[in-house]
């Protein structure tokens, strides 16, 4: 339905018939704003977040995902949440999700974890974020029993976040797909968390590299859960990160066929292994994405 083009005259119809279908796809307004996980440019954000975000805007990004919130101080990148929100507004940017340091509280009493979560909720509301995301589990905790404990924590946290009017999600890496005595942490998360309380943020790179399932298969098996995606490419030789278009993941095939019905936000990301530097990386990935991939989202 999004591909329909209405014409005002037979002449316009004849002209349109000469344009390839991909021309319509590339020309139509994207459904989603092109997002960036700011961890990609953490070095630049640490030095000068204001000028860095101005460059992010100039490259065509319109949405961001934050990291590094200081709950005790209520600051993002050294700025009070309200000041950071003003900066976003001035640049006409949004920050729809955030990665928060929940793993550091994994072995703390639940009340302590929930106390930190309340700080994150407060910050997220100030910047008008829609999701709070658990991004990482430290290596010491990656056992089947701990994944079961994690699932319980995620359910409790999801209920608290939902009560505050926000969404809650879990972000995968590779370790969730590694079997421990035949048990995979990701299977525990999928089966023992409430789909209404705990949504999922799919890191497509890690799914392709480490899972026995494809992104499309995971989405089909868990309808309504994958509300956010991380999109990054994989080096053809080392399998490390790479700028979009330079790697081995066929995102044209993937994004042109994948079910995006549950998708709300996506973020381009590259954690390291930059061809030149982080800012050039997000420029190169943005250029490739806008030319070849944005038509599908």
From TrEMBL:
InterPro entries: IolE/XylAMocC-like (IPR050312), Xyl_isomerase-like_sf (IPR036237), Xyl_isomerase-like_TIM-brl (IPR013022). The keyword Isomerase applies. GO terms for molecular function: isomerase activity. Keywords: Isomerase. It comes from the Bacteria. This is Sugar phosphate isomerase/epimerase. SUPFAM superfamilies: Xylose isomerase-like (SSF51658). The keyword Isomerase applies. Residues 54-262 form the Xylose isomerase-like TIM barrel domain.
